């Protein structure tokens, strides 16, 4: 994939992060917006919009960094573990899902029911499963486990700073933006690489016809 497409992917993912971060803030930080809507304060409201858009852009950059790390890890895992790499990925997914329940529950000291942490982990796993199925259907079945690995393991690693914040508002802001950005990158990557391979095939066919 050429540099122009990488830049395009970066900018589009950045835009998605900013938009999703802003829209999510309308729901998780609705009280802040309400304070400046009644009475109406244009400057403060504009500042909030810029702030949450900026947060979305930051989360998008974190997502893109994690995505490139994922591409490296996937290639490294294939070369190191070979046919065992899918099994290793499944074990890592199971480990991370367990950690999503165990460590946050311990951190709150039992103040929040275990059920909510199980539900949170199940939601991340369920969403990742759906996106991985879409990826596998659009490419091939071997892409399912790597796609699930990205959506669960890499997204959770990227989410760690949000999990460490006090309260849940910023954690929600971060995870929704990360999932949106990772979903876009995962589902668009094969389209970009396929268009490159088709372009090369056309060039090769033209060269062959000219030689003939």
TrEMBL record:
SMART domains: KbaA (SM01251)
Keyword Cell inner membrane: no
Keyword tags: Membrane, Transmembrane, Transmembrane helix
The keyword Amino-acid biosynthesis is annotated on this UniProt entry: no
Matching InterPro entries: KinB-signalling_activ
Pfam name, any one: KbaA
Residue intervals passing through the bilayer: 7-28, 48-72, 84-102, 114-132, 144-164, 170-189
Highest taxon listed in the record's lineage: Bacteria
Protein name as it appears in the record: KinB signaling pathway activation protein
């Amino acid at each position: 994939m050429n540099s122009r497409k990488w830049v395009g992917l970066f900018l589009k993912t950045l835009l998605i992060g900013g938009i999703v971060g802003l829209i999510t803030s309308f729901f998780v930080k609705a009280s802040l917006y309400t304070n400046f809507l009644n009475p109406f304060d244009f400057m403060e409201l504009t500042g909030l919009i810029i702030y949450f858009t900026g947060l979305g852009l930051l989360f998008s950059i974190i997502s893109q960094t994690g995505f490139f790390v994922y591409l490296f890890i996937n290639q490294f895992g294939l070369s190191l573990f070979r046919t065992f790499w899918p099994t290793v990925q499944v074990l890592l997914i199971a480990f991370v899902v367990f950690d999503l329940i165990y460590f946050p529950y311990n951190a709150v000291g039992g103040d929040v029911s275990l059920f909510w942490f199980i539900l949170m982990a199940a939601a991340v796993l369920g969403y990742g499963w759906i996106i991985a199925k879409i990826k596998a259907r659009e490419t091939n079945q071997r892409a399912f486990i790597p796609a699930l690995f990205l959506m669960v393991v890499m997204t959770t690693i990227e989410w760690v700073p949000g999990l460490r914040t006090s309260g849940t508002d910023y954690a929600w802001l971060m995870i929704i933006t990360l999932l949106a950005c990772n979903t876009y990158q995962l589902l668009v990557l094969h389209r970009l690489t396929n268009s490159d391979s088709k372009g090369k095939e056309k060039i090769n066919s033209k060269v062959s016809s000219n030689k003939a």
